[in-house]
Amino acid sequence: MIRSLIAAFLLATAPALAQGEFPPQENREAWGLAIVDVETTGLEAGHHEMIDLGAIYTDLDGNELGRFFIRIHPDHPERATEFVRSINGFDEERWTGLGALSEADAVERFLAFHAEASGGRTMLFTAYNAWFDRNFLDALLQQHGESFRDHFTYFLLDLPSLAWGAGIPDMMNADVAGALGLEAETSDPLEHTGLSGAEWNLALYRALQARIAAQAGREGQD
């Protein structure tokens, strides 16, 4: 019943949303993954702001379609907490030296990348803490007359949930990485960026897909 209601809702709203044909596995060429990681000045979207954005777009098999990275000058740098500065290395003068752009310019460039890299595919927003990244991106887009729902499908792909379903019931990224034989994401604040996070997310997705395929193969032999 619930599945039917969701399908009816998506069908009714398809003209207004970025929405491809369901199910994705039967329409693979119409779908892609927007693997995203953002760095911010804090934890509260709408009050704190994004200071960089990394994205790697892929098909459903994890084959890369394009990548994007940009640093952003927040409108309110004074809201940046010391804790997040210690994680992502944010500093106003450093950001200027690294070529950070205004929020408006960042939105324009990201949407241009999105249009080109998606190539007409419906993009499924994919991240390690998907709601966190989604909410910050949506807040930035809405400040500049855009909306997350205009460019991405209704659903989110949350990587810890995918890992849980693959038999790794952990939440911390280092623990999930260890279970898959991967290195943890860098903790060096000078190297820790949205792009390094997106690259790590993609490596995690590929490792999880391989694990799921191996599990399915073993089950088929039983």
UniProtKB/TrEMBL annotation:
Residues 32-214 form the Exonuclease domain. One of its GO terms (biological process) is DNA metabolic process. This is Exonuclease domain-containing protein. Keywords: Signal. Gene3D superfamilies: Ribonuclease H-like superfamily/Ribonuclease H (3.30.420.10). It comes from Maricaulis virginensis. Transmembrane segments: none annotated. It holds the Pfam family RNase_T.
